[in-house]
Write a structure and sequence with these properties.
Bound molecules: coenzyme A, adenosine monophosphate
CATH class of the largest domain: Alpha Beta
Radius of gyration: 24 Å
CATH topology of the largest domain: Rossmann fold
Helix content: 25-40%
Oligomer: single chain
Length: 638
């Protein structure tokens, strides 16, 4: 479709002209118990609140509403597990029933409106049910990704202070069974705040041992409530009440608890399903992500169900379960119309099947578009996907904080011309500017920090959990009147945004957001390490990979290799396997400025083989040469 046929400009302009009418109109697609006093109240919250005064229930909108409207027999959720070779479909009636029964179990466990419930589960339908059961009774869920270690879980437990935890006995990673329960037990032991109860789903691949008077068996509790016919009805919550907390990496070891509210979140997500993704109710939408990430929250759980579409929960990988045709098998088997995943998944497929020979083995005529997000989509991967799948490949730019895409190419409004390397244009609700360090707006094609003019649209975080001050400091103080994305980039003369990478020490490893600062904090705890630096180096498959540099204490006689291995093991046990921290090297000294700041930026350029110059403020230029040599010995920067 040519640019002139897209309704994007007209729709974006209508939002700009009158944001309140725009979102007020979009809100008609959601069912409310009570309407709002104001679409946007600029005087409450940290930068104003959306749909203040309104009352609603997110789970009702995702489930009961569709059953009442006659969609009860339609598929709501398809579970496809490549690792256990099972598939199971839940209709809207069945899913509503499961969620209402589970919600009653939570009530029996003493969970009340506003209580937090932590969810630590693999990619199984029960993870989605757990999220919706919390939403149904007004409890605030906090899902923690399965690849995080016990210590990370403990940090989140202490911040969210959940009254209950929902987990499963294990996850399955390719051919490996990962027991979750020992990690959970260790985390609870380490946490100061102890949950009163844990609801554990036993999976046959690994039976979990239970702790008396604290752990309850999911199947038993559900069977008991079923036999009693006990279900929980949706409770009325305020639009501005929290729906969930999702922890994401910041610049320090303490993760940020991104808060999502109920009302604005529903309005924004529902709007995107037709206008952005071009999905009709009843169609199958597949986000091949994980419920532990924001994409999983928004597009595995909430948005498809708000829209009356069918969501797909896939337990498996793009490759190895069993082959690089896994995605194509799922698409053709379940009639998927749109796939949403991270570019890294496509790089993994392309690496194993460069010719795309597995694509031809399946009938993919149902597929209309591929959506990519989570990291910069490199043009090479984009072109490969376009060439092999013969459908539009849509890059769109996201953050955990925003909950939906800041910029993208809105298929539902009519596709705009694609410029490889750009996730296209700002979505209604987002007014983007590129700023210099002083907050001055920069012109087209000049790189700076990308900022969003306040207020943020519905669906974006109103604050950080229990920490308004950190919210303001992290996002609102750098540039007055703006939310700073901490992403660097530029806008071109057509308003296309180019997102080039983070301006802070957050890195993106296989579509997973991680903090090098946090890794440094863990590495520094090793008794033989005097100081350290962790940088993100470019990686062909995962986008970036962390690389650690260690300076040892004077007089350490232990073999360097042994210390390096211990440091790798330490990060794995403290942060988790998801950190993919495997490359670490002992060096004599770290390059620093005269004021003692480690030159991580220069080291990163060196590792990536980019041009670098010796900064004028450097303390001792010889150190850079030493680092270069150490990197070259590990195959970096050459
Ligand atoms: N539970 C336990 N461990 C997990 C896990 C989970 N849910 N997810 C990942 N891990 C482990 C992996 O097994 C691996 O362990 P290892 O070091 O022992 O091999 C480690 O964490 C690193 O995982 P990852 O970086 O994901 O590598 P991978 O080789 O397992 O998979 C990809 C590579 C590209 C297939 C995978 O990263 C992927 O699909 N990424 C897309 C991410 C995404 O969807 N992001 C959201 C934005 S859309
Ligand atoms: P997360 O909060 O995990 O979704 O990660 C958000 C970060 O991922 C952003 O700040 C960007 O740095 C990066 N990111 C996400 N989507 C894109 C994209 N389409 N293009 C470039 N970077 C992206």
């Amino acid at each position: 479709m040519a640019a002139t046929e897209s309704r994007y400009q007209e729709v974006y302009q209508s939002w700009k002209d009158d944001p309140q009418s725009f979102w007020g109109e979009a809100a008609k697609d959601v069912s409310w118990y009570k309407g709002w006093d104001r679409v946007f109240d600029p005087y409450s919250g940290q930068y104003g609140r959306w749909f203040a005064g309104a009352e609603c229930n997110t789970a009702y909108n995702c489930l009961d509403r569709h059953v009442e409207a006659g969609r009860g027999d339609q598929a709501a959720l398809i579970y496809d597990s490549a690792v256990t070779q099972t598939t199971k479909t839940y209709t809207y009636s069945e899913l509503t029933d499961e969620v209402a029964t589970l919600a009653a179990v939570l009530v029996d466990l003493g969970v009340k409106v506003g209580d937090r419930v932590l969810i630590y589960m693999p990619m199984i339908p029960e993870a989605v049910m757990a999220m919706l059961a919390c939403a149904r009774i007004g409890a605030v869920h906090s899902v923690v990704f399965g690849g995080f270690a016990a210590n990370e879980l403990a940090t989140r437990i202490d911040d969210a202070k959940p009254v209950a935890i929902i987990s499963a006995s294990c996850g399955i990673e390719g051919a490996r069974v990962i027991a979750y329960k020992p990690l959970l037990d260790k985390a609870i032991e380490a946490a100061k705040s102890k949950p009163a109860s844990c609801l554990i789903l036993q999976r046959p691949q690994a039976e979990a041992s239970m702790i008396a008077d604290r752990d309850y068996d999911w199947a038993e509790a559900m069977a008991l409530n079923r036999s009693r016919g006990r279900k929980a009805e949706p409770v009325v919550v305020k639009a501005t009440d929290p729906l969930y907390i999702l922890y994401t990496s910041g610049t320090t070891g303490k993760p940020k608890g991104v808060v999502r509210d109920n009302g604005g979140h529903m309005v924004a997500l529902k709007w995107t399903m037709k206008n952005f993704y071009n999905i009709e109710p009843g169609e199958v939408f597949w986000a091949a992500s994980d419920v532990g990430w924001v994409v999983g929250h928004s597009y595995i759980c909430y948005a498809p169900l708000l829209h009356g579409a069918t969501t797909l929960v896939y337990e498996g990988k793009p490759v190895g379960t069993p082959d690089p045709g896994a995605f194509w098998r799922v698409i053709s088997q379940h009639n998927v119309v749109s796939l949403f995943t991270a570019p890294t998944a496509f790089r993994a497929i392309k690496k194993e099947d460069p010719a795309g020979s597995y694509v031809g083995k399946y009938d993919l005529s149902c597929l209309r578009a591929l959506f990519l997000a989570g990291e910069r989509a490199d043009p090479e991967t984009l072109k490969w996907a376009e060439d092999k799948l013969k459908v539009p490949v849509i890059d769109h730019w996201w953050q955990t904080e925003t909950g939906w895409c800041i910029a993208g190419n809105p298929v539902g409004l009519g596709i705009l011309p694609v410029k490889h390397g750009s996730p296209t244009v700002a979505m209604p609700g987002f007014e983007l500017h590129v700023l210099d360090e002083t907050g001055k707006r920069l012109g087209p094609n000049v790189q700076g920090t990308i900022a969003i003019a306040l207020p943020m649209p519905p669906g974006c975080l109103p604050t950080l959990w229990g920490n308004d001050e950190r919210f303001r400091e992290s996002y609102l103080t750098e540039f007055k009147g703006y939310y700073s994305t901490s992403d660097g980039g530029y806008l071109d003369e057509d308003g296309y945004v180019f997102v080039m990478g983070r301006t802070d020490d957050v890195i993106n490893v296989a579509g997973h957001r991680l903090s090098t600062g946090q890794m440094e904090e863990v590495v520094a705890r090793h008794p033989d390490v005097a100081e350290c630096a962790v940088i993100g180096a470019a990686d062909k498959l995962k986008g970036q990979l962390p690389v650690g540099f260690l300076v040892l204490n004077a007089g350490v006689s232990k073999e360097q290799k042994a210390i390096e291995d211990e440091v790798v093991a330490l990060v794995r046990s403290e942060i988790g396997p998801v950190a993919a921290f495997k490359n670490v090297m002992v060096v004599q000294r770290l390059p620093k400025t005269r004021s003692g700041k480690i030159l991580r930026g220069t080291m990163r350029k060196m590792a990536d083989g980019e041009a670098w110059t010796t900064p004028a403020t450097i303390d001792d230029p010889a150190i850079l040469e030493e680092i270069k040599g150490a990197m070259a010995a590990r195959g970096l920067g050459v």
